[in-house]
User: Fold these one by one.
Assistant:
Number 1:
Amino acid sequence: MTSQTGDAGVPTLDDPATDPFDVARQAAAALRERTGVERHDVALVLGSGWGAAADLLGEEVASVPSHELPGFSAPAVAGHVATTRSIRLPDGRHALVLGSRTHLYEGRGVRRVVHGVRTAAAAGATTVVLTNGCGGLDRSWRPGTPVLIRDHLNLTATSPLEGATFVDLTDLYSQRLRDVAHAVDPSLPEGVYAQFRGPHYETPAEVTMAGRLGADLVGMSTTLEAIAARHAGLEVLGISLVTNLAAGISDEALSHEEVLEAGREAGPRISRLLADIVGRI
């Protein structure tokens, strides 16, 4: 029989009897101990292409291998960072950079997908910035274009909320934070992000369906984290990096290497953008 506790005796998220918020609180306590930072004010989840932004935010206080914190797993995807970083911003606040994102397609359960944002809330954060690399449906958004998420379509057929937990998502992606982003770069477009389960890329017919439903962007992350963040009381800013045109929009075949390459090329520009936005939040 598989043990339901971790190496340190912490109940795992795999046990249905475990309260996932208890594990998040224990992870936040471990962060305080490992980083020496009592409170983190803002959290960032850095998806494909966004990782270099952490180096521009401010002075790193500490870096912790994510899987050493209760409830976290080592990343399963090439190009995803496996550390959680505490960074002191120029104004004295502290940012928590969650570099080890768990995706739904990894099969580790929804609780693990959203554990990072729940830990951020338990660590004191009031704002979370969710980023991703994604496919674009608008031909004018060339690879390397950052797009603010104004709303989403959750096409995963699941939710991070358990039981009779009712949360209003009307203004999930904060207009206030989008206004801050527009103050940094007035040219930033906005769009609706659709999350599919993955790990396969969408078919042209699925992309057409998503477009008819109102989507401008398609990917495999973010919406479940955003829902959990709202439930935990966090204000949410979502930013996508268009790494490729979605299936059927372009004649080119899709590949993960293409996603990584687009992220590398856009990295310096979008990293500076994100650091400037966080500095104004």
Number 2:
Amino acid sequence: MIHRILPDRSGFGAKRAASLALVVSLLSFSPQALAQATPQDPPPQMQKSDSADALSGRRLELRGMQDTIEASQEQRAKIEAEVASIRTDRAKLSTALVDLVQTIDGRERKISEAEARLDTLTGSEEAIRRSLASRRQVIAEILAALQRMGRKPPPALLVAPEDMLAAIRTSMMLGSVLPEMRAETEALASDLSDLLQLRRSIATERDSLAGDVEKLGVDRQRLAALIDARQSALAAAEEALGAENARAAELAKQAASLKDLIARMETENAAAARGAEAARKSDEAQKAAQAAVPEAQRKLAMAPFKDPARLAPASAFADTKGLLPLPVAGSLQRGFGAPDGFGGAEKGMLIATRPQAVVASPCDGWAAYAGPYRTYGQLLIINAGQGYYIILAGMDRINVNVGQFILAGEPVAVMGDGSAKTAAAIAIGAAQPILYIEFRKDGAAIDPGPWWAKPELQKVRG
């Protein structure tokens, strides 16, 4: 009979129609409808069972909290034991700091990439959901047609030959409708399959992201302990440190510019003056060594950051072009020489970072200034020798003292959460923390681009 043959020829059977009806009913179901449903009160026995289940759940939750606290205490004890074992060995402490900063930097990059992938997957999921929602009316119309066909099937020719005209009209209608129904069903099945796969990918990314964030927290806790150990080991002149910090703050108020601040610090602050004198002696020693064995000096410049026990730069700053690591992982917002929005050009570069990102020194040098300065936020000036100075600004907390010798890759500061706006962040309207980096040579700003290691520069631009 025609009403039996046509569905089989179209490939659209009763099972597919039932599946389509189930899918549409699920899509059209809304949380509001669930909220409007009025549940009946459970019997007393069920209420007692629910109370017992709730109490059991609370006990399990409490046990989980206790296990978490015990695990945290064990982790803290492990970190403290590790720090105690290397506290007196400066080389080991410096190596641990540099290695841990590299680990944190890589983990922060991985987290940022996972967040970007998660945003893309979530956007794709929303697009498919909107597509399905936009086709609800079409699917409902097709299901209604199927229901009408089920209630009033086409006539059988052998039973009622006089209904030949009605049978032909029914066949024509089915021939035009069923291909459209099949196409809609196949598109819907494809979208639902993609949606299921996206949700699985999103769950996997979220689990991976949560694990990386947890590991990052442990790494930052370990880093804080190592920094405390380093600073306590270096604080031999603890009594003089407070007076020198106060003097640095007073000089910062009086300085009219960064150039003026550097000059005042190195002439009127004892710790900064000692660092400047050490830089001058290091420059003289490097010139003498270069004149004596220029070939050895060139070989040394290819690996200037290998000795963690060094107390002076391993090579002249000018020889480190193309070798310096970026101080933080992030995305470049403005480069040197770009328009600053006020009719001038940028004297440095602006990098958007993650909240609480660790800032590392890009080079060896002495801290010439460490503290707040005008609209720069927390400002760190590093004397790299040969008249070169590295300026890092926009941090939330600085972890080194004025006059302290810093190794390339050592942690020197921590970024904030972006709530405290610096001039650099306001200039570009950034919501996240912004690190400002400026290189100076003999008081004038220079392009830092030639000094960065090329893979590092590609990462920060990504």
Number 3:
Amino acid sequence: MYTFSLAEAKAQLSKLIELVEGGEQVTITKRGKAVVKIVKSDPLRQQVPSLAEHRAGIRYLGEPAAEFIRKMRDSDRF
């Protein structure tokens, strides 16, 4: 972990970014107190397809549940 004062960070921003890209953590201080911690960001998440698209791609096998329940209700077995 590296620590830089605010003035040093302003002068060496490119160096700080290179350190962070390399996996290091950088802390920037103001008047001796830590005020900012720079860490490497997480990679972007892959976008998930919409629920509507997913539902449209589902193929149903057999009879719908409502019809099955209706048959069970109307039969002598229930």
Number 4:
Amino acid sequence: MTKILFLDLDGTVRRTKSGATFINAPEDQELIPGVTEAIAHYADYVVIGITNQGGVAAGKKSLEDAIAEQKYTMQLLPQLKVVYFCPDFDGDLIYKVSCEKHEAWERHQFLDPISNKPFYQSFRKPGAGMVQKAINDLGKIIDAKSSLFVGDRSEDQACALAAGIPFVWASDWRGECK
């Protein structure tokens, strides 16, 4: 069975170089100390980024900037297989970004492959829609109890709980290796 390491990005894996609250350009980001060491303990996991990007809906960044930001994060952290992000406040839209391409889905377009019924879980955290979409996209049976969701906010914890994935706080996860 496949084990997945779900990582929130902002405040968990990356931070701004400039000290600004939000990443304003793809290159204005760096890995938080301890991330490289922590992720090394999960070599046999599929590593997936899960991030809300409400700055797009708030007009603070363009969709293209958000896509470029995720791709740059993948350059900084090559273990990331893919990043899912929700750019709207309603949780109706999701983007899947890999190094090669990006794709988008609207919630009403997403069908659960098992039941073949529309999937209505919000994509925006604390909803578990991004996690469920990632699991379905893998097309493998996952080991949920051995998988892990790492985050720094209560919405990350609630997302993990809704998805049935164990959760750990980012500061604890990064500190495992100190």
